[in-house]
């Protein structure tokens, strides 16, 4: 079953633009490569904790990752 609620291509594009493998991102997230692959193709929904880690890692906002904005620059974060 494929979920179309989130724009999964954004996490793939960020990874590819950073010249990183799925395995490298999976290690950052603390998941298996197969799990990350499922996030990237939309087979599995990623949890909020994963969104936070991805946003921090890629220096973007969760709003950008989920398609609420096309602006990848993050908001000012709490210290």
Task: Label this structure with key terms.
434 Repressor (Amino-terminal Domain), mainly alpha
- Class of secondary structure makeup: mainly alpha
Overall number of domains: 1
CATH superfamily: lambda repressor-like DNA-binding domains
Name the CATH architecture. Orthogonal Bundle
Largest sheet: none
C-alpha Rg, in Å? 12 Å
Spans with pLDDT under 50 lasting ≥5 residues? none
Q: Examine the coordinates and then state which fold CATH places here, giving the name of the CATH topology.
A: 434 Repressor (Amino-terminal Domain)
**What is the 3D shape?**
globular
Average pLDDT figure: 88
Kindly describe this structure.
This protein is an all-alpha fold. It has one domain (9-65): 434 Repressor (Amino-terminal Domain), CATH 1.10.260. 51% of the residues lie in helices and 0% in strands. It contains five helices and no strands. The protein has helices at 9-17, 22-29, 33-41, 48-57, 62-65. Helix 2 packs across helix 3 (33-41). It is globular and about 30 Å long. The mean pLDDT is 88.
Give the helices and strands, then pairings.
Elements: H1 9-17, H2 22-29, H3 33-41, H4 48-57, H5 62-65
Brief write-up:
The chain has 79 residues and is mainly alpha-helical. It is 51% helix and 0% strand.
